[in-house]
Amino acid sequence: MSLARVVAVAPGSPADAAGVEVGDELVDVNGEELRDVIRYQVQVDEPEVALTLRRKDTLIPVTVSKPAGAPLGVELHSAVFDRVRTCDNHCPFCFIYQLPKGMRRSLYLKDDDYRLSHLYGNFTTLTRFTEADLERVVTEGLGPLYVSIHATDPEVRTRLLRNRRGATSLRWLDALLDAGVEVHGQIVVCPGVNDGPVLDDTLLGILDRFPDLATVGAVPLGVSDHSNEPDMRPHTTAEAVAVVDTIEAWQDRYLAALGRRMIFAADEYYLMADRPFPEADAYEGFAQHENGIGMARTFAAEVDAALAGHAVTGVGPRAGFFASVDGAPAAGYRAPRTRRTRLAVRDARGGAPVVLLTGEYGARVLTPHVAALGDLAGVDVRLHPVPNRFFGGNIAVTGLMTGEDIAAALAAVPDDARVLLPDVALSQDRFLDGTRVADLPRAVEVVGTDGASLVAALRPAVALAAG
Ligand code: SF4
């Protein structure tokens, strides 16, 4: 088991006052050898925290006194200190298999670890879940969890996961729900495989067997140019329309049977089907916002409210794609995800345009707001969709933009423009291709991806105060 390593100590914090230093390793906390940040958090919530630190081969006991529940002021190098449990499935739609070669190694890790599900919202298939895991989830209250369902038919699920345990592992979902754990489900819909009658059967199966699921998201298969699976292909428009119709028909049935819709289609489906997004109420709280479900609707609501001068707390994404593999402890266990980068942007005033970099899907979400945002900024606001050549295929979401593609797109941006980049494309200040904002050929300003942050960045008085 590797030890937790301290990567930051907040100045003036209890840990700082007690002499904890960056680079120290935590041998134990209150006598417990820690497996993950979940146990760390439990231990450091105590008012008296006894740390054993290892600093250059010397063990140093340190006692920290603070109010119960107050933060210690330490950030650790990772969320999990023993081995991340890797997945033993071989799903033909797995995005890890569709990554180009040569990316940083951590991105190729296929995790199926309930702790990362709890901490980051990663989906787990439960094929490696055990009785001991169930006990820990229940006793430590590790909900919500996020479970990949894909199909409730055992044979279809086995085929989709390419793992015979796929046929039986949903028994753990039963057990989790029986124990009162909040669980959200996901169906990755692969056209010709688990759409059509299979999707109907799955939604019936969920209503029948798992009515206590909090929500279920239906998301479309993403296919990059690097997929080697001949049966995996993007949806046609007609297939996307059919999925939206199926989900909405089942929403009505769930509403009648359970009093809530529970099942939601990803925003991408509405874009592909060229259908208007459902009203905000229909998302019943946006529990799967980070899964791309209701993002467009919340963005619109945030922009409208911010333009109207109302205080808005953006739902906003809390973690970038692959956040769990970059060593960034999950939200609540770490410092803010990315620093806002402000590079010479204040000079780009006086009539110069503001250019919003975004993915091709994001551009369609932003388009209805561009005129109002331009009025707010008092300048020409333009969208600049960045084609995703790095992944290719049907990959068009903003969170998968890479530095390489952004650099190419910037060549067409006027020299005097103020350029805004949504932070969802970054994880620990890096794009997925490993490049950083500082590697881009010109200055850009990183802003929050939610509507309120964009409005704040465009409203001159607010922006100046923040800078
Ligand atoms: S369970 Fe997830 S990580 Fe594992 S192969 Fe399937 S899609 Fe990939």
Outline the biggest β-sheet: 5 strands, antiparallel
Shape descriptor reads globular
**What is the tally of helical segments?**
15
Mean pLDDT: 89
Strand fraction: 5-15%
How would you sum up this structure, described in words?
- Strand 7 (183-189), helix 7 and strand 8 form a beta-alpha-beta unit.
- The longest helix has 22 residues, at 237-258.
- 30% of the residues lie in helices and 15% in strands.
- It has 15 helices and 13 strands.
- It has helices at residues 14-18, 37-44, 114-120, 131-140, 154-161, 171-178, 196-209, 237-258, 267-273, 295-307, 360-366, 370-377, 403-410, 451-458, 460-466, and strands at residues 4-9, 25-29, 48-55, 58-65, 74-76, 145-148, 183-189, 215-220, 263-265, 354-358, 381-385, 418-422, 445-447.
- The protein is of the alpha/beta class and 467 residues long.
- The two termini are 43 Å apart.
- The structure holds iron/sulfur cluster.
- Residues 87, 89-91, 94, 96, 110, 112, 125 line the site of iron/sulfur cluster (SF4).
Sum this structure up briefly.
The protein has 15 helices and 13 strands.
List the helices and strands and how they pair.
Blueprint: E1 4-9, H1 14-18, E2 25-29, H2 37-44, E3 48-55, E4 58-65, E5 74-76, H3 114-120, H4 131-140, E6 145-148, H5 154-161, H6 171-178, E7 183-189, H7 196-209, E8 215-220, H8 237-258, E9 263-265, H9 267-273, H10 295-307, E10 354-358, H11 360-366, H12 370-377, E11 381-385, H13 403-410, E12 418-422, E13 445-447, H14 451-458, H15 460-466
Helix pairs in contact: 7-8, 8-9, 10-14
This protein binds iron/sulfur cluster (SF4).
The site of iron/sulfur cluster has 9 residues, from loops.
